Amino acid sequence: MSCPECVTGTLHNGTPTGTETKVGGVDAYVVGPEDAKRVILVGADIFGWKFVNTRLLADEYAAHGFRVVIPDFFNGWQIPTWSLNAHDPSNPHTTLFRRFVAAPAALLVLVPFVLRNLPSQVSTIAAVAAALRTAHGPGAKLGFVGFCWGGRFAISQNARFDASVAAHPSLVRFPAELDGVERPFSLAVAAGDPDFNRAKAEETGRILKGRGLKDVEVVVYEGVQHGWTTRANLADEKQKKARDDAVKQVVGWFDKYLVVDAPAEAVTTDP
Q1: What is the pLDDT of residues 195-244, one digit of tens each?
Q2: Dihedral through CA 116, CA 120, CA 180, CA 197, nearest 10?
Q3: By the 8 A CB rule, do 143 and 162 touch?
Q4: Kind and range of the H or E element at 236?
Q5: Can you give the pTM of this predicted structure?
Q6: Are the beta carbons of 10 and 231 closer than 8 angstroms?
Q7: What's the chain's Rg over C-alpha atoms?
Q8: Which residues lie closer than 8 Å to 208 by C-beta, 6 or more apart?
Q9: CB atoms < 10 A from the CB of 6, how many?
């Protein structure tokens, strides 16, 4: 496996406002109203559940009234943040160490990461999803948004949720895993993504709509690279706008499809 863009990006500044707890026996970062009936489960990229960028993104979603949960789907593993920018050709400050030591090392750790974590992903997602449905009670709506590694499961595990969003998914068995899409599905990709690019995204839309699925959205972003939703350089206006537009895409999708039925009004009768 070789995916330089999967380990490239910028570390964001900020202090996440949520807390850490257990959900379905799995460590998780949680933020937003505890009694919310609209819940977003986040499938993080390979930087894991503690990555500050992803936590700050969860805080943004929570500001719209969602309960947002980032579980540790990797059982304590994650790619170290020192790999960020090791492969970035636009970084003029890349040192010889980064270029010839850090960059190859960042790619090498991907292989054991995939071998260790892939077999357990579906069962862990299922367990956390079940725990959230139980905790938030009847009538609660549960969505899933996945980035990079997590984006694959926003596709293959879509049917477990009321709606899902896949952002620059990787390692997707295409088109076979599109069979997992049965419910509202939104896709965000970079036009020039080395794996899931414009052509594959547009084909995804054709395949799903060809099966009669109406609640399908495909958005292609220009001028950004794989991973921009979580690792954009916020000092770059184009990247920041694309990142902010992706936030609006996710929030808009879940606002539309995680709709909680209004409680039935009590019927009173005159004595």
Answers
A1: 999 999 999 999 999 999 999 999 999 999 999 999 999 999 999 999 99
A2: -20
A3: yes
A4: none
A5: 0.88
A6: yes
A7: 19
A8: 178, 181, 185, 216
A9: 28
